[in-house]
Design brief:
Number of helices of chain B: 19
CATH class of the largest domain in chain B: Alpha Beta
Strand order of the largest sheet of chain A: 4-5-10-6-7
Structural class of chain A: alpha+beta
Number of strands of chain B: 28
Strand order of the largest sheet of chain B: 3-5-1-12-9-10-11
Distance between the termini of chain A: 54 Å
Number of domains of chain B: 3
CATH superfamily of the largest domain in chain B: Aldehyde oxidase/xanthine dehydrogenase, molybdopterin binding domain
Order of helices and strands of chain A: EHEHEEEHHHHHHEEEEEEEEEHHH
Oligomer: heterodimer
Helix content of chain B: 25-40%
CATH topology of the largest domain in chain B: Aldehyde Oxidoreductase, domain 4
Number of strands of chain A: 14
Radius of gyration of chain B: 26 Å
Largest sheet of chain B: 7 strands, mixed
Shape of chain B: globular
CATH topology of the largest domain in chain A: Uridine Diphospho-n-acetylenolpyruvylglucosamine Reductase, domain 3
Largest interface: A-B, 28 and 31 residues
Amino acid sequence: MRAHPANYELVAPGGLSAVLSLLAKERGVWLPIAGGTDVMVEYAAGKLPARKLVSIWNLPELRRIEVFPGEIRIGAGCTYTDLRVHDMVGREFPLLANAASWTGGIANQNRGTIGGNIVNASPAADSLPALLVYEAELILVSANGERRVPYSNFHVAYRKTRLAPDELIRAVCLPRCFSRYYAHARKVGPRKAQAIAKVCLAAQARLENGVVEDIRVAMGSVAPVPLRLVRTEDSIKRKPIDAALLRLARQTTAAEIQPIDDIRSTASYRAAVAGNLVAEFLQALSTRGMQG
Amino acid sequence: MIGVKDERIVGTAVPRLEGREKITGQARYVDDMVLPGMLYGATVRSRIPRGKIKKITFGPEINWQEFVIVSAKDIPGKNCVALIEDDQPCLADEFINHPEEPILLLAHEDRHLLPKAVEAVSVEYHPLSAIFTMEESESRSEIIWGANNTFKTILIDKGDVQGVWEKAHYIVEGEYRTGAQEQLYIENNGMIAAFEPQQGLTVWGSLQCPYYVHKALMELCGLPPGRVRVVQMETGGAFGGKEEYPSMIAAHAALLALKSGRPVKIIYDRMEDMAATTKRHPSRTRHRTAVSKDGKILGGTIEFTIDGGAYATLSSVVLSRGAIHAGGPYYWPNVRINAKAVATNAPPHGAFRGFGAPQSIFALERHMDRIAQVVELSPIEIRRRNFLKPGQTTTTGQAVSEPIDLGRLLDRALELSNYSAKKDEFARQNQNGNCKRGIGIASFLHGAGFTGAGERYLSSVVEVEACEDGGVRVLVSSAEFGQGTKTILCQIAAEALGLRYEDVRFAQPDTQEVPNSGPTVASRTAMVVGKLVQSAAIGIRQTLRASGLLGESYSAEEFRIACRKYVAAHGKLRSLARYEQPEDIVWNEEKYRGSAYAAFSWAVYIAAVTVDLTTYSVSVDDFVALQEVGRVLHPVLAKGQIIGGVAQAIGFALYERVVWDNGRMQNAQMTNYIMPTSADLPPIRVYFEEMGNVHGAFGAKGIGELPMDGPAPAIVSAVGDALRTFFNSIPLLPEDIFDAIAGKGENAEHAGSARGNP
């Protein structure tokens, strides 16, 4: 540990309203910490700038998964393990359940939370492309009340979000309207488990009469933010899946993403793999996505 | 009862001696140890690769009065980490030669205050031009070490290489490279030092070679042998990474302890350990080989070059092992091997399992595949036609005295891996689909024990003691670090004495208590130290018999009684055995001729892989590891050694890349330095042949390093087979495969050239 514990203060008020009033009272001073799977890594490296931490771990208000006829509301404090074992998440939102199973090891999955993943806002986060594909909405909460915002434009720049300093994410809402979609996810990491993605894909689509009726594609690690590939989707929509479409989809993907060279991979590799993943999805869709 | 010919203990899977302590958390590692009044130490390191220290300033935000500060000026003896050359300073005094070079030491009783204090020391430099590649070093544009940037050159010359080129039907050339690799032991490096005016200096630590640390501390502190004591604590893995660097950390802890008068603990965290300590030497090998029409090697030249980093450390001996293994298990009637270790401004590279051999064997095995392509033979046939046979000589002129039959070993490996059926099946499957499969092979050898006259110079000593309570104790400086030293040496003593395994204990390696059985390296423990333990144990029995306390045959209980009686009557009974080189092992260090090793282990490994062209990633699907290692002393530990070595070599081949920037490691974290996990490993199928060997205990040879040598070339061969592309460098990452397929790869070999004689 390169940080000095005496330089940090951690409080655990134990209830959501107490946390929110603390955040409201000293705006921007307190860093909420849930499972700590991101915060403690920075702390251990001696690189955590925040000095005051407020624990939101296991707040009952944030740890619920509520099922409504039109949507599922996942408390921001739900862990990856919570998502992995939840029947309905697995059945109706397999992309999210998959992503939860990819993240870290079992210990990380027992501590890391979906809300933390969103707020930490890494472009390489495994779960976020799934949320884009499912057109999630976020319920944000502060001492002044709640607001509901679309997730699609929540990330504004590299590791910057629309969350106000006195706000927490209360829940992630996913509409239950994708039962007829063929879903496909793939993470390309440097090894099979416990790795940070070099490229990851979440996608779903609906085929009708051999034509791609509707499609949603999102990727991680290919841009400063988790990216929904809207132009690629448009280039594919209402077309039959053939060699020409695969070629076009690869090209549009490569043009739409903004990959970089970094310590983990190269831009050219990421661009090629991103195109391959979209093509692979379309091929799987054409052979296995006929029903519906 | 003794006299039963069948071995009862050797060859069986007795429980690991320290296993219970480890799994119940009772084993004591250095960081578990706390001494009264102990301080914690930290190291201020250079941020530049090369330069001159101009000024050191201590930031105002720290109360420096509370800290113990040590600089080179505080060193009582010689400012060096004594090893082979005394070129590496313990603390940089004036010149900096690599990033992360230690400059100052700080200590405080609150370990949490140290990172900030380290940050608060600023060093101003006068920067000097630095060099980072072997090619820059060879060009001598900057001289950074000695007269010519060269730590060591070796020439192995056999027969007449000049004469072979005109007889050649083919001349095959190639260049091959391997990268640095981090050992990644589970327990990071750590040491505690304490100085007492009466007893002198004691250090406790995580280490492989107690007497290396002992020697380094004597020189550094100007103390006589009896005033320096080194104790090995339970050690959580080493792989060569705790061969030489622990001397540096022990020296640092000792200097702080001397200055403060209090015990000092230094524990590296993972980032510091990865950034600052030694790694496997990067290498470059160039082959030029004359081959007959029917695929026989007529002769060739091999240029083997390794990057030693900024100081000599162990580079000369790594080079030696690499050079001697460069000819592999093949017969070279004529060969010239030019080997050199060069200096760059990176932290010194050092010992890592295999010690130069994985580098030169990678090159040779890739080159054998290249020769096979040129001659239009299979990789199997080219090897079969060139295998060394008993009576033939190695590149150093050592006659193969063991009855090894490599052709038979090869046949068995082919059968175990179902090679030819797979080869056909893959060729068929690869016509369609995005996943391409391939199969590859490597055949190789690894010499056990120190090279050449090394064992004679070491002149190792072990002792076996008959104790007051009737038990027996093994006293050696050979360290347990997960590989099974304690278990196999106790098995050997128990077997030799006709006792139960439980009757034998293992003394903690402590230089005040145990003799110098040499360093725990070079696959020498089972063969060399084991044999000495066997002899020393027999000495105990002889003494007890000579004193009339023990009959020709006896039970374990009778033996205990005899020990107790002897100790009561005569006091301590210790039997000593010292290594003596057999007369038929002759080595000429000047000419690099003769018996390089007392024995070789031999192996054929076969890997099957799948390359996914969606992601360009390789997964190893099946791995057959067949080896002849002499007598297997402990089947479970031996199998574990092979599986672990193969896993580590899969990392070397496909995953582990040190990202360098001006000599500094950029990915010094386990998040970004990618080692394989169990999810990335194939079933590793381990098979032993046991031919026996006269030099080792109960016929054992070396085993620890062997499995590091073969997997990388076998896997890269399989990847090449899958993709019909020749790869010549490791690590071979998905990005490299993508670049090769996209046509801009440097790794895919088109550089190797070949010509056929008309």
